[in-house]
Amino acid sequence: MGEGEGLAAPQPALPAGAGQDVGRSCILVSIAGKNVMLDCGMHMGFNDDRRFPDFSYITRNGRLTDFLDCVIISHFHLDHCGALPYFSEMVGYDGPIYMTHPTQAICPILLEDYRKVAVDKKGEANFFTSQMIKDCMKKVVAVHLHQTVQVDDELEIKAYYAGHVLGAAMFQIRVGAESVVYTGDYNMTPDRHLGAAWIDKCRPNLLITESTYATTIRDSKRCRERDFLKKVHETVERGGKVLIPVFALGRAQELCILLETFWERMNLKAPIYFSTGLTEKANHYYKLFITWTNQKIRKTFVQRNMFEFKHIKAFDRAFADNPGPMVVFATPGMLHAGQSLQIFRKWAGNEKNMVIMPGYCVQGTVGHKILSGQRKLEMEGRQLLEVKMQVEYMSFSAHADAKGIMQLVRQAEPESVLLVHGEAKKMEFLKQKIEQEFRVTCYMPANGETVTLPTSPCIPVGISLGLLKREMVQGLLPDAKKPRLLHGTLIMKDSVSAWGVISEEWVRGLLRSLTCSCPTELPAGILRAGPQGAGPGRAPAALHLPRAPARHAQGAGDCHACLQPPEEVGTGPALSGPGGRGVSRQGRGSHHASPQRPEGPLRAAPSGWLRDRGVHPHPGCGPLRGPWHQGAAGLLDLPGRRAGELPHRPAQEGCAPGPQRRQLTARRPPCPLPKWRDLSFRSRTMSVPWVSLVDVEPTAGHSLHPWGQDHSGTSPRVAIFS
Amino acid sequence: MSFAGTYCVIMDPECSKLLPALCAVLADPRQPVADDTCLEKLLDWFKTVTEAGSSVLLLQENPCLVELLFQVLKPQDLSSGVLSFSLRLAGILAAQENCFQYLQQGELLRGLFGESGPLGRAAWTAPTVRSGWIQGLRSLAQHPSALHFLVGCGALGTIFSLQGDPSLFVASAAGQLLAHVLALCMRGQAEEHPGPQASDWPTCAQQIVDHVEESLRSADSPQVTQALNVLSTTFGHCHSPWTQALWVRLSPLVACLLEKDPVPAAHSLVDLLLSAARSPVLSADCGLWETLAQTLSHLSCTQAGPLALGVLKLQACPQTLRAQAFGVLLQPLACVLEAAAQAPGLPGLPAGTTGDSVVVDTLLSSKSACVGLLCQTLAHVELLQPMPQRPSPWPQAPLLGAAVAVLRFCNGSAAPTSDVGGRLCVILVGCVRVQRAALDFLGTLAQGLGPQELVTQVLAVLLEYLKSPDSSPTVLKKAFQAALRWLRSSPKPSGCCDMDPHSQQFLRELLPVLQKRLCSPCWEVRDSGLEFLTQLTRRWGGQAGFRHTLLASEVPELAEQLLRDPESYVRASAVNAMGQLSSQGLRATSASPEYPGGQQKSLLLDLLHILSADSEGFPRRAVMQVFTEWLRDGHAEVAEDPEQFVARVLQVASQDLDWEVRAQGLELALVFLAQTLGQPASYCPCTMAPPEVAPPGRLAQALQALCRVRLFEFAFRALFDCDRPVAQKSCDLLLFLRARAAPCGNPQDAGSSPNVASAEAALQRWRAGQQGQPQEDLEPEAVMAVLRSVDLEGLRGALAESSDHVEKSPRSLLQDMLATVGTLVENEADCY
């Protein structure tokens, strides 16, 4: 049996939409007992119930709000967020919805557009209303890039820049040592207004990535742009009109920048229009979220706002009848209604004119028809419209191509990959490529298919600065190449998965040996649990050490955890890029800034290994006491506590109401104590089995780093401190 | 998408012409199919066509369909989408028994659904194909021949195995198919007097029941779940007498599940028991109630909650079981009440409902368990509260106490003396999830009253939440909503239309909080505050106590400032709030003697400014709604000169880029029209009789007024608006006017006047989508003449069709699919 096998912590992932399919992205992930919905999109190809994911498969588990811990929206495109008001206001999800600030700002505009077309133009009933969109948006919690947000005590999420459209983000979801990264749509190459997607070497258990261009190596963007400009220019030169149907925000701005620059360079005079006030709206959002654009735009923003166009003016319906050449960006992008369709009708009969479709069109729309070469279109009232104008298709979508996807996998170093948002055949090709190149398992579930991953998470261990300093004072500076023993205390949370594989007798024996004053009973579920699970929705994982260092056996009574810093120690990726890197402490409500962690995971001994060696509390250290609740760090510094002594439990056990807690925290002096307050002790008061000292030693070839000098954002489940 | 009921329920010749080419494309593995949505829509259409007529005839007239199905039998590399489509199509066609026989002549169905079909090929690994196979059989299984076929081709075994399919969709469909087949089997000979012994039942049914029995005995929990799901579907959908025999046969096995620890597949077991309890055939079975009672006591408190709720929702159920269920449901709240140990004099929960130690253990085992159980319980009791069959007497007071206690635990203001209370404090403090659930629950409890002492506590805790800087925006919103419900429920003092003293006191304390919340940096909070203010004003704006308290605060002033909020949602809510305040004479400055009336005008101007200048649609739409309401209710400022008001508003609204604002402008025009003509504005040309005709003199005056406000220009231009709802509304408005003014004037008389020519010219331009005004002002006679010349009924009929009806037609679908052939590679799948 390989390492960790049989001790699996299943991480089911279920695409309810976007499995081997483009459109209606909706993926359910269950990670260490937490259930997260990734995106909540709609399918534009349907006008009935099928446009939304079938949520009944979730509601079978009871109320949605009770089942789901949160919903995460990757970006504002409707195939990723179009079902959100339906889901929250009509199906009844009442929990938090996370998205970035730009997505929060732009999402309601697109939803409103969609509602207006669906309900009012097509006369559809039983659809969400404006009020529902607003109520839904009130449930949104906006996040900053690289800000680690605590959804609850155990579940945390972190956003990374994804390019693609303004505000698009990839999300890392982490519960303890287990993590999943969901990319949403992303672009690994920068374009004229957005940067490239970026993620750190976060080594998730699972990377869920889009695979729209799973088999495509995209041609040069420059060629595509040149082709576009040439066509527009030629049409305008011969006196024709160019219609570019677009969605309100997104690719439209990229094309506007392209045309604006070209017009300026060529000194062209033909007017360019952008329809219905969207120019101002777009400008507003791009100004507001300038940090989300690429470096060039940010740099030049002070001198000139790239989104305030000199040549592009607001369009009025009357302009469509003006003689002479012009270029018009009009919504909607599929020519299925509204202004773009109205202009198309006017201009279609003239062969001098041109329509350029820069995006995907669903079946049934005029856009789809002309793209597939139909030249005689039946319009309403049995009118026949002959299309004589030129029809061009140019893909300007900002998805990663096959190379980009591989690059992201390389960057994140996941244990396994799951492909979504693509076509099955293409996915199959990419799956093989990923498996060959990275030697990781790659999955490509269809909609409704569940993938369950075995995980063998390591439990990272942090060392406090105090402990390191003390060790240094006591002896010589640690030789980086020589193993060395450190004395510390191992604290285990109630949900530390190790208990699942430790025999009940052993645990009871351990607990008997403790003199802890706080309740030491383990949760019943954990004691009962076998390898398959420890209580509803939670499964144990292994306290796992890939290379158990038997050579470090110590004398009787010593317990060991082999500290094995990873190879990237001290070489973590530089934190730079759009939006500013680093751990943001901004948040709202219950969000906490990212807990900082040591320079990489240190691995504790496997349970079997510990058991074989008869682990028990270190005789030299007293028992741990204290109500370890949220914000309990302050209690460490209660007056009267000797240096190095662990906090004592106050008289009223387990009861530390808010005001008292704040008072204690306020008294905490600035000290070099480890910044572990947000880590292992949050609200675990009642069921924490305190395990006493464990000796720790650095592995040869690596040095230990004090707590808090790393920014990679992992939340250790086990802390070692003096 | 459904084509039912509108058109093309029969195969029209044009579609028939296109079908062979399409079938050829589908059968050709070298031709990629456009996308799966097209195939889905195609199936929808075939379903509609076969439901309306003979499938055999369809196949005879379109032999390409059978050819396509035969092509699928050939071992070739067809896409999984096309394979799935073909299986489903075959099922739809074979749903008619004669068509089933027709297809079986060539052993086509056995080839498609038997071992030699996709089942035995590599394509079977695609969930789409398995799903198509199941759905095909589901459509097909409608007649006895289908049953023989299912047994004969060994499909049952495959269906059994598909119950455990990795695709939830396939697994679920397999379970439903089994339930459907079982019901179909039993519909025949054995229906009337089936014995519980398997030997009495048809073979197919026997096989299914044996499989279910075996699964129920299994130690494998997923297999038990599958069996329970099949039974739930069966008892849920079929209420024939044979289901009783089935229950008699299987209930001992179900009861055996309860002996296991933990109870396997508890969710599905609960579903099954409730499904059985709802069945009129089984509800007389005493054994069922006993099983329910046992289950309630065996399941963990989290699992028992849904069952208890389900039992309490039953129309008929033994009283003891109801009492037990209610006790189980309330246990977590009883624990909370005990833990809070507050107000010892209050009545407790019903007898038998005490804080069970197991429940206490669950609550204290971990934060997630505690939060989950409390949220579930609060939601369940909230659902039960408004039901007519809720338990009686309803323990309103203890429930109120529990809700208050939970909220106090959550905000840290509880001071429990018990150990459990202390632990709950630590677990729940700051827990937004429980706060939301408890506030919703508290709001629902406002439907019933409680002892004054408790109501005071409720209001106090709501105030705490509204005041607390730690309250999240969602919690605040719920606190506002709960507060509103409690204020609404407060009893009116006898002989007085004002609020009761407690509510007034609450309001006095609340308004400074609201004032603070209107200045919140979170738009969500400002918006919720404004929505609350609007509701308050609408409900109590006419009452002296409220007016006095509100005007003494800075709330109206702040609300007015929010008209310039950076967030459009907030501006829209501020418009609504100010509209309401102004209607009730509650604007801050109206009470001020130094601004007699002058400031009131400025709100009108402010709103007009928003209407003409706001960059977002929400505030502009809100302004139009307020203006319409003002005009309808005779708001003082509007009543001064309604014509001028309407003229200004219509002028701005007609230029708006948001069609909803234009549509709202027509609504306002309709109100004005009705007022001018002295008619109610509720006329709907399609449902009601025409309104009374106005006297000629009055009509002429009214028409003059309508011309002065340029209502006709707005309405005629809107008639040809590119946005359908605007055109529809305009059509309704003009039909109303024409019906009202029917006998007035003679079109022939007015036809030659130069004004008519000008009006008609303008109409032509608007019809062509051009802008601009008529050369001369429109005059009533000319307008009426033009009005009579327009085919408004025809236009209304055309507009009634959805704007994409052409795109949705089957012909369009077939054309699109054919046209896409060959262009797919060129136009790579792009995304939105």
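The mean pLDDT of chain B is 86.
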